[in-house]
Amino acid sequence: QARSALGPALDKATGTLLYNAAARLKDPKHLGFLVDYIARREILTDLQLSAALEYVRSHPLEPLDAADFEQACGVGVCITPEQIEEAVEAVISKHRAELLVERYHFNMGLLMGEARNRLRWADGKTIKNEVDLQVLHLLGPKTEADLEKKPKAAKARLAPAEKQKVAVVENGDVGTETQSLLDQLRGEALKFHKPGENYKTEGYVVTPNTMALLKQHLAITGGQVRTRFPPEPNGILHIGHAKAINFNFGYAKANGGVCFLRYDDTNPEKEEEKYFTAIREMVEWLGYQPYAVTHASDYFDQLYTWALELIRRGQAYVCHQKVEEIKGHNPPPSPWRDRPVEESLLLFEDMRKGKFAEGEATLRMKLVMEDGKMDPVAYRVKFTPHHRTGDKWCIYPTYDYTHCLCDSIEHITHSLCTKEFQARRSSYFWLCNALDVYCPVQWEYGRLNLLYTVVSKRKIIRLVETGAVRDWDDPRLFTLTALRRRGFPPEAINNFCARVGVTVAQATMEPHLLEACAREVLNEQAPRAMAVLEPLKVTITNFPAPKALEVLVPNFPADESQGFHKVPLHPTIYIEETDFREEADKGYKRLAPGQPVGLRHAGYVIAVQNVIKDVSGRVIELEVTCTKSDVAEKPKAFIHWVSEPLACEVRLYERLFLHKNPEDPSEVPGGFLSDLNPDSLRVVHNALVDSSVLSAQPFDKFQFERLGYFSVDPDSKEGKMVFNRTVTLKEDPGKA
Fold first, then answer.
1. Radius of gyration over every alpha carbon of the chain, rounded to an integer in angstroms
2. Where does the record place the Glutamyl/glutaminyl-tRNA synthetase class Ib anti-codon binding domain (predicted)?
3. Which of 102, 232, 444, 577 is catalytic?
4. Phi-psi region of 187 (alpha: psi -120 to 50; beta: other; left: phi over 0)
5. Which of 257, 407, 630, 679 lies 20 to 30 angstroms, CA to CA, from 311?
């Protein structure tokens, strides 16, 4: 096209502009229009071309207003050398004082930028040459001092609370850089469209009604960002959903918008009230409040009306192929695809009245999806009462039909979903446009998966049915209710999602990275207590007082301003069995005959006087003497202890599966149920804990000194508390 105007030989500058136009223009329908301006040498610079491309993206409808386009792109604007000289002179005059002080260390880019702002279409090289010339005239040649490097200013350090580490996932490892999740989601960070500028998104389909619909949309939303989290209420949310919650609610929050919690309740056979309740609980537990709680079923009447309209427009038909016939790739085309509109309307009404058995008829849409799937189902017959609409309906819409239309009704601006839904993007746009309703934009991101676990509803149900786990909230699972029960703080889960980052690629992470996030938060949140898992009785034979002593223990030893709690010290105490040995090996620093230890927080050092054993030779009691710490020789170690303790049950958890990918047949040929770790749960029935935890409620968290972080389990009852170990104090090197 350019050669027809300029002849066979094109100069390099024109060739570069043509190449950039073709490479950067997403919608080729305007390519000829742009080439015409380049060939006529009315677009001469890359700056003009960038403005032209932006104009075309912002004006998707034909015909383009040539005069408006030319004004926006600087066509015909001629900048004289005198204008450039005057603009640079004005900028240098503005910064003259700083230039004289800083000389050539001054940021010359600032002068360039301001001059460019004054003369938008001026040539950049010409402006730079003029800046250099006038600066030289003002300051003279560079001196030795000017040639020295300017010392870098020290960067202000962020407080820990302002930091969150973001993922760079490489080969399963996470490198870190400091950026909060909200920073990742704010403004231009994700290159998402602005509300009302849906048409600027690559692949978005523009119809003659698009701009009017977007204008109505903006009038309703006021330009507000709107997202939604749309779970199916047929299972419990898992760690992958935590990323979706953080992304949807976080993107809205970061950009001053709102997020809906919308239940996709279109499959009444599998939906239960407990799932609705648990989903909302988990969203709020993670710290988010929905703008509104809605249900797909709220819109069943409107969806049905639109289905009739789709048939009338010749875009949907009633089909009698069986489910088995249309499953898989390349199913045979429906012989009913071209049936008359009136016939489909009557048959669809018969479907609604219950005149067809389940599987005898479906309503299908006339389109081919990205993955080659042809004519997806919009409605199917199900004689199952709905938990909200009762027996009103015996036909229910599918995800492919419901999702985009509910987004449209709620005026969602950014429909964020995981990558596997990319194949449904074309049907999303097609359906909204087929009905001439507002069309949101679907954006996809990568799923978050964890190793050493399964998260599919079907597989978790199998684990429950076989007794491998107790229920959906068994602390060995990675459902959100299970993580809460195990003691993971919501902040740790949100921080983990921030570290994984908002990636398009699927991220498969090691559980120890989530555990590390838990340790960081619990170290700041969990007050200290002392507990003994395998108790050994110790009697202090020279107890220094006629009654129990009161020991003050800091809730947070690193910050005593957060208070203390009291624990009693009696002549009888209990220590860990593993903290005593009859013979001290080399490197062993705890209690042994001839090797005293200190009692944490008590101010006393104890030394073994007598070892008492049962008939089998097992040590069952120690008799010791105590000495005040300030007069005793400093011991090699300090150990934890309890006195007049509470009996409790402690549950110690390990990974549920032995292999990283229990669902991978190449790794686990016998299936995931054959890969269960027999040591995933160890119950300590007669552990002892100090009395400071007596009033703790379910989900309260503690650090048991030297043992790990623990959370009160809801199974706790009066007289027998139950604790779940959340994580150990340090990462097990074997798990990393």
1. 35
2. 526-626
3. 232
4. left
5. 407
List, for residues 228-275, the tens digit of each pLDDT value. Answer: 999 999 888 999 999 999 999 999 999 999 999 999 999 998 888 889
> What distance lies between CA 511 and its chain's CA centroid?
15
The pLDDT of 380-394, averaged and rounded, is 95
Residue 212 has pLDDT above 90, yes or no: yes
Other beta carbons within 10 Å of 40: 12
Alpha carbons 527 and 599: distance in angstroms, whole number: 19
Question: How many other CB atoms sit within 10 Å of the CB of residue 186?
Answer: 16
CATH classification for the domain delimited by 81-140, as one of 1.10.10.10, 3.40.50.300, 1.10.10.2420, 2.40.160.60: 1.10.10.2420
Tell me whether residue 457 is one of the annotated catalytic residues.
yes
Q: What order of strands is seen across the sheet that includes strand 708-712?
A: 528-529, 701-704, 708-712, 721-727, 646-653, 681-689, 531-532
Q: Is 581 a catalytic residue?
A: no
In DSSP terms, 573 is beta-bridged to: 538
Instruction: Summarize pLDDT for 681-709 with one digit per residue, the tens.
Output: 999 999 999 999 999 999 999 999 999 99
Tens digits of residue pLDDT in 306-350: 999 999 999 999 999 998 888 877 788 999 999 999 999 999 999
- The pLDDT score that the predictor gives to residue 323 is 87
Per DSSP, the residues of 644-665 read S-EEEEEEEE--SBSSS-TT-T
What span, in angstroms and rounded, lies between the C-alpha atoms of 723 and 731?
Answer: 20
Identity of residue 703:
Q
Q: What is the dihedral of CA 690, 691, 694, 696, to 10 degrees?
A: -40
Is 447 among the residues known to form the active site?
yes
d(CA 399, CA 218): 26
Contacting residues for 99 by C-beta, under 8 A, at least 6 apart: 92, 106, 135, 138, 139
The DSSP string of 233-252 is SSS--BHHHHHHHHHHHHHH
pLDDT higher than threshold 60 for residue 443: yes
- The one-letter amino acid code at 294 reads T
- Work out the angle at residue 592's Cα, subtended by the Cα atoms of residues 589 and 594, and round it to the nearest 5 degrees: 100
What's the pLDDT tens digit per position in 474-513?
Answer: 999 999 999 999 999 999 999 999 888 877 778 889 999 9
What is the H or E stretch that residue 519 is in? helix 511-525
DSSP 363-422: EEE--B-TTS-BS-EEEEE----BTTTBTS-SEEE-HHHHHHHHHHHTT-SEEEEEGGGG
Is pLDDT above 70 for 733? Answer: no
Edge-to-edge strand order for the sheet containing 377-381? 316-319, 362-365, 377-381, 395-397
- Nearest Cα residue to 473 out of 713, 648, 718, 701: 713
User: Which residues 6+ apart lie within 8 Å of 1 measured at CB?
Assistant: 32, 35, 36, 39
User: Residue 429 above 90 pLDDT?
Assistant: yes
- Quickly tell me which residue has 């602390």 as its tokens: 475
Sequence-distant (≥ 6) Cβ neighbours of residue 368 within 8 angstroms: 374, 375
Average pLDDT value over all residues in the chain = 90
Distance CA 713, CA 493 (A): 19
List, in order, residues 6 or more apart from 710 with CB less than 8 Å away. 487, 531, 650, 701, 702, 703, 704, 723, 724, 725, 726
> Measured at the alpha carbon of residue 448, what is the angle toward residues 402 and 259, in degrees to the nearest 5?
45
Catalytic residue among 118, 457, 470, 581: 457
How is domain 536-639 classified at the CATH fold level?
Answer: Ribosomal Protein L25; Chain P (2.40.240)
